[in-house]
């Protein structure tokens, strides 16, 4: 006998079973439909090579204005003009030589600077060797014993009193090098001036008499007492140089003697009862000498002092190298070139240059037009004469190409009317650029200037594509590219800087041979078939 509740349960069960069957059929249909759609859906892909916009340097922008009445003024200041290349009325073009300055002083300064650098380099070598020698010494717990080294005895006799070494009875020269300098000594080079001092080749034991130093003082002359290895200025290297400028020194005791290596006076007061004559040969001295020893603390201190000395020498070396580089640049600027196209308006007499602050030579601009702009001091080493810049006119909207012809050597005192990128606390310098095709420009037109500051060669292999082709997922960047089976796959990429406001650098994960799709829209999904774009 069937109960009413059981009948209701059976009906509900049958109803649910039918729904389940119908639902499974619908899901299967939806899945089949989705598969059909994916198999028959296509998305266009574009070659990365066609999308690569490249990058040719960071663009620095600044403002500028058109000037059709430009002129070039050359001021000689304290320089001496040795040759004028043009005459009044001559037409000149950018790069034509106008005049040549005397470079004698620069050459003298260069010689002295190079000699100073050579001395510093030698001192650095000696300091490094000394540090290496000290590092090889094994410290001892005993107190360091001091052994005063004896000077070479090749051509002189020494006497000792109270541990002070004094030099007496020496012959005047050892080969080409002097053992002592007096009024009869002859320099191997020089004229006695600060730029060209008398130069003497000296032995390591050489001294200068007080009489000769007084002579330099009375005549306000300068002498350089040099010690070279091997006593040779051609085969050896400079060990030390004592430059004595008589114009800046006082007289000394006429009978005194001054050691070149230390610049100190030699003590020659001898007590005959305590005199000990030493005539030992070099080999005998080495046999009797005792090896210097250091405690660990003394050795550490000695090495630290030498390393500190080495650092100071390296700083001096860098400064000397910068001085030489500056002198080279000054030498290169000895010939003044025309920075504009124009006509020579004024040329003064080199024998009677102006002293009222007026220019020595002037060139009046002609043809074309000129642009005046500015750059930051931080970019001075990246911007150079001859470099092209782009100028956008705010008035007519046209773009012009200009070439930088002149960069000021002095910073702007008042930057009114200019703006530029970069640190506002740095100095800015004006520059002049020539526009040959200047149609549409008028005097005073305001311009926006753009110039590249990066090394183009370094960017030739860079890959930059539109930012729209790159998406983000969990902090990672990816593109949708065509796989080997011509279906979209997700490719993660490493990105770099963004340039021009719309392009992004792809550092890895993608190459120009790949093809990618626009990663937005219903069809931009992994697994979708790809078809090459007609572009």
Explain briefly what this protein structure is.
The protein is α+β, with helices and mostly antiparallel strands and 535 residues long.
Reconstruct the topology from this structure.
Elements (H helix, E strand, L loop, with lengths): L3 H37 L1 E6 H4 L7 E9 L3 E4 L6 E4 L6 E2 L4 E5 L2 H33 L20 E5 L2 E5 L4 E2 L2 E5 L16 E12 H10 L2 E7 L9 E8 L11 E3 L4 E2 L10 E3 L3 H7 L7 H37 L2 E3 L4 E6 L13 E5 L3 E8 L11 E6 L5 E9 L20 E8 L10 E7 L11 E3 L4 E3 L2 E7 L5 E12 L3 E6 L6 E3 L11 E4 L3
Estimate percent helicity.
Answer: 10-25%
Structural class: alpha+beta
Mean pLDDT: 79
Strand content: 25-35%
How many strands, what sense, and barrel or not for the largest sheet? 8 strands, mixed
**How many DSSP-defined strands?**
31
Q: Which spans have pLDDT < 50 for at least 5 consecutive residues?
A: 144-168, 270-290, 417-422
N/C terminus separation: 80 Å
- Given the C-alpha coordinates, what overall shape results? flat
Radius of gyration based on Cα positions: 42 Å
Q: With helices defined by DSSP (H or I, 4 residues minimum), what is the helix count? A: 6
